[in-house]
Amino acid sequence: MKKAVVIYSGGMDSFTLLHHALSRGYEVAALSFNYGQRHSKELQFAADECLRLGVEHKVVDVTTINQLLQGSSLTSDIEVPEGHYAEDSMKSTVVPNRNMIMLSMAIGYAVSIEAAEVMFGAHGGDHTIYPDCRPEFVLAMDVAASLCDWHQVRVTAPFIDLDKGKIASIGRLLGIDYGRSWTCYNGREKACGKCGACQERIEAMEFAGIEDPTEYES
User: Fold this and answer.
1) Which of 47, 55, 173, 212 could pair with 205 as two cysteines, CB 3.0-4.6 Å apart?
2) Domain 3-208, CATH 3.40.50.620 — does that match?
3) What angle do CA 22, 126, 65 make, to 5 degrees?
4) Is residue 79 scored above 70 in pLDDT?
C-alpha cells in the first residue's frame, strides 16, 4: 500500500481529494494548517472527518507567520469580496506563497514517515486567481521535492486539469457527503452564499447534479 500525505483544509476540494486517495488504496496521513486565516471552521470539519474515517490527522499551528502573510482578505483586516472568481476583486484572497509554505512542510513530513507522495487540491478553476495553483508551480515543487532528500517524494495535484464542477462529479461517484466539508470564506454559523468560494461551490453542485446540503444565509 502506497502512503501519501494529503494537505487537507476541510474544504470541498481537499475533502474530495482525501476520499479520492482513500478510494485508490492509499494509506493517508492528512495534514492541516492553522496559519492565522480568518476563521478555523474548516479545520474543525477536517478534524471531524478524519476522526470519522480513522485517518491520521495533524494540524500544524503556524500562526506566527501570519505577520509575514499580510495583504490578503483571508489573513488581514480586509473585507472578503463578494462575487465570482472570474472577477478581478477575488485576487484579494491570495495568501502570499501559501502553497509553497504548506507543501514544504508536507514534503518534510512525507520524508519523515517515508510517504511516497504529497497531494494537494489545486484545480483548473484556480489558475487565473492563484499563481501557486498553476501546473507550472506543481511541476516546480515536484522537481524541488525530488532534490531535497535522499527519500524520493512526489508532489501531485490530481485535480489540476479539472474545474470544481468536475471535482464535484468525482465526489458524486464516490458517494461522499459534502455536508461534512466547509467552503465559505466567512466562519459564521451558516455559509454566506455570496463570496467567491460559496458561489463556486453552488455552481459545482449544480453541475454535478448534487443536492447541496449546505445551509446558506442567502
Assistant:
1) 212
2) yes
3) 85
4) no
What is the Cα–Cα distance from 196 to 89, expressed in whole angstroms? 10
CA atoms lying within 13 Å on the CB side of residue 85: 19
Domain regions of the chain by residue span: 3-208
Residue whose grid cell is 445551509:
215
Query: Where would I find the beta strands (DSSP E) of the chain?
Result: 3-7, 27-34, 56-61, 117-119, 154-156
Phi, psi of 151 (to 5 degrees): -80, 120
Cα distance between residue 21 and residue 151, in whole Å: 21
Element at 211 (helix H, strand E):
none
Cell readout for 76 is: 488581514
Burial class (CB in 10 A: 0-12, 13-18, 19+), 79: exposed
Cell of 68: 509575514
Taking the CA atoms of 207, 210, 214 and 218 in sequence, report the sign of the dihedral they define: positive
C-beta of residue 103 within 8 angstroms of C-beta of residue 141: yes
Instruction: Decide if pLDDT at 169 tops 50.
Output: yes
Q: Assess whether pLDDT exceeds 70 at residue 43.
A: yes
Backbone angles phi, psi at 172, to 5 degrees: -65, -45
